[in-house]
Design brief:
Strand order of the largest sheet: 7-4-9-2-1-12-13
Radius of gyration: 15 Å
Number of strands: 13
Number of helices: 1
Structural class: mainly beta
Distance between the termini: 26 Å
Strand content: 35-45%
Oligomer: single chain
Shape: globular
Helix content: under 10%
């Protein structure tokens, strides 16, 4: 992923924005082994804290910058605690799995959008989400994943359904 050199033209086909959302999930390709997505982050917006039920999540920042906050679970107190914060600029790659913890990612820039490439292996269709770090660790919801676009085509019927993908937004 670090060595991939994606042209703006090849990425633009998958960069669909909706500034009323924190981000959009745009499906590029999927097999039984992996899913490849482009996420378009609105200025100053971030995901909710969530897990990754797949074994690996690789994220490459294509445009702008993203901030990742990793959380651990304090089992004795049943709450989430921030463990570290990192920033990734264009071309940098991060990796996440449940063995590391939970995380939220987002665009720290209040003025411009960011674009990231996500490789999930194996694919997953739902994950756990928390509203904030003050939530009890046992107080999560299950979010079904959807797509804002598929293979470059807008698909409003597949995302944003109340109580499903909207939980992450």
């Amino acid at each position: 992923l670090e060595r991939s050199d994606l042209s703006t033209k090849s990425v633009n086909k998958f960069t669909h924005w909706d500034l009323s959302k924190s981000y959009t999930r745009n499906l590029c390709h999927s097999t039984d082994e992996y899913t490849l997505l482009i996420l378009c982050w609105s200025p100053g917006k971030e995901s909710k804290i969530h897990n990754h039920p797949s074994q690996s999540c690789f994220i490459k920042t294509l445009r702008g910058c993203i901030r990742e906050v990793v959380y651990g679970i304090d089992e004795d107190k049943d709450h989430l605690k921030p463990v570290r914060t990192r920033f990734y600029n264009e071309g940098q790659v991060s990796w996440m799995s449940d063995s590391i913890g939970l995380h939220k990612i987002g665009n720290p820039s209040p003025e411009s959008g960011s674009v990231t490439l996500h490789l999930y292996t194996p694919p997953f269709s739902e994950c756990k989400v928390w509203n904030s770090s003050t939530d009890n660790a046992s107080n999560f919801e299950i979010a079904k994943m959807g797509f804002f676009s598929v293979m470059g085509l807008r698909t409003p019927q597949l995302e944003g359904k109340k109580g499903k993908f909207a939980l992450l937004m």
